[in-house]
């Protein structure tokens, strides 16, 4: 794993904060609904920024459409964010669908499905041991 550098970490946080504001105020495309910028990773040389995006309550196709719109508007977004951040270099922006929330939701659903089965199994084990005594 690459070493984390404070400068790139600071830049990532500034980009996330300012980009969130720019998307909410300046992007009027309906495909960019309730976008959440879950993480921004900036390369060590500050040349690239990967922005991980999730859209609450959206299907996979809608999320991909949203990511595509954001990637098409990367020049506009980069210019707007650069005006707010004081830096000699503004990284190129690349938007990526963040699947962590989807994986967490699937895992939670699996756990919720298995939990009642294990509870009923535990109850039947207790009942069988009680009847042996």
TrEMBL record:
The keyword Cytoplasm applies. The keyword rRNA-binding does not apply. This is Ribosome-binding factor A. GO terms for biological process: maturation of SSU-rRNA. It holds the Pfam family RBFA. GO terms for molecular function: ribosomal small subunit binding. InterPro entries: KH_dom-like_a/b (IPR015946), RbfA (IPR000238), RbfA_dom_sf (IPR023799). Residues 122-133 have a biased composition (Acidic residues). It comes from the Bacteria. One of several proteins that assist in the late maturation steps of the functional core of the 30S ribosomal subunit. Associates with free 30S ribosomal subunits (but not with 30S subunits that are part of 70S ribosomes or polysomes). Required for efficient processing of 16S rRNA. May interact with the 5'-terminal helix region of 16S rRNA. Monomer. Binds 30S ribosomal subunits, but not 50S ribosomal subunits or 70S ribosomes. It is found in: Cytoplasm. Belongs to the RbfA family. Residues 114-133 are annotated as: Disordered. GO terms for cellular component: cytosol. Keywords: Cytoplasm, Ribosome biogenesis.
């Amino acid at each position: 794993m690459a070493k984390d550098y404070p400068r790139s970490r600071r830049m990532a946080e500034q980009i996330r904060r300012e980009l969130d504001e720019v998307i909410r105020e300046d992007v009027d495309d309906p495909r960019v609904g309730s976008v959440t910028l879950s993480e921004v990773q900036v390369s060590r040389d500050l040349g690239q920024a990967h922005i991980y995006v999730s859209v609450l309550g959206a299907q996979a196709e809608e999320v991909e459409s949203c990511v595509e719109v954001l990637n098409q508007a990367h020049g506009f977004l980069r210019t707007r964010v650069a005006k707010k951040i004081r830096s000699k270099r503004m990284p190129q922006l690349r938007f990526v669908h963040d699947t962590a929330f989807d994986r967490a939701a699937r895992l939670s659903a699996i756990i919720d499905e298995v939990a009642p089965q294990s509870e009923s199994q535990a109850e039947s084990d207790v009942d069988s041991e009680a009847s042996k005594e």
